[in-house]
């Protein structure tokens, strides 16, 4: 249990550190625009995957009780799963005809 919690903390801290380092580099214009775009995309991808992984691990730590909407961890896990899905996937899931698949 302590190992899983440590992994969750490490994953969240690594994502936060990468996002902050990328933001500092962008603010300082420390790299070419092409490299900054690549670094920003990498930071977004890593942070999104880390948020989803930590939220799902939190549910597992609670023995599945966090998945019920009445429990506190349910909201972040559902939000992480929805927030970081491509728009096209969300549109198809909810029947939105105005969203064009990628």
Write a structural description:
With 102 residues, the protein is mainly α. It is built from 4 helices and no strands. Helix 1 (2-28) runs antiparallel to helix 2 (33-61) and helix 2 packs antiparallel against helix 3.
Low-confidence stretches: 86-93, 96-102
Structural class: mainly alpha
Outline, from the CA principal axes?
Answer: elongated
The succession of helices and strands, N to C, reads: HHHH
Please tally the β strands and state the result. Answer: 0
Helix content: over 70%
Distance between the termini: 40 Å
Please name the fourth-level CATH homologous superfamily.
Butyryl-CoA Dehydrogenase, subunit A, domain 3
* Secondary-structure arrangement, i.e. CATH architecture: Up-down Bundle
Which percent range describes the beta-strand content?
Answer: under 5%
Strand count, sense and barrel status of the largest sheet are:
none
The number of distinct structural domains comes to 1
Kindly report the average pLDDT value.
76
Question: What labels would you give this structure?
Answer:
mainly alpha, Butyryl-CoA Dehydrogenase, subunit A, domain 3
């Amino acid at each position: 249990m302590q190992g899983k919690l440590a992994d969750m903390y490490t994953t969240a801290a690594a994502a936060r550190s990468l996002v902050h380092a990328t933001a500092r580099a962008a603010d300082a214009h420390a790299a070419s625009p092409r490299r900054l775009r690549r670094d920003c995309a990498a930071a977004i991808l890593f942070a999104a995957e880390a948020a989803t992984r930590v939220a799902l691990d939190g549910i597992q730590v609670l023995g599945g009780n966090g998945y019920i909407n009445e429990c506190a961890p349910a909201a972040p896990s559902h939000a992480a799963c929805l927030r970081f899905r491509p728009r096209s996937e969300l549109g198809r899931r909810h029947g939105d005809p105005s969203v064009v698949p990628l």
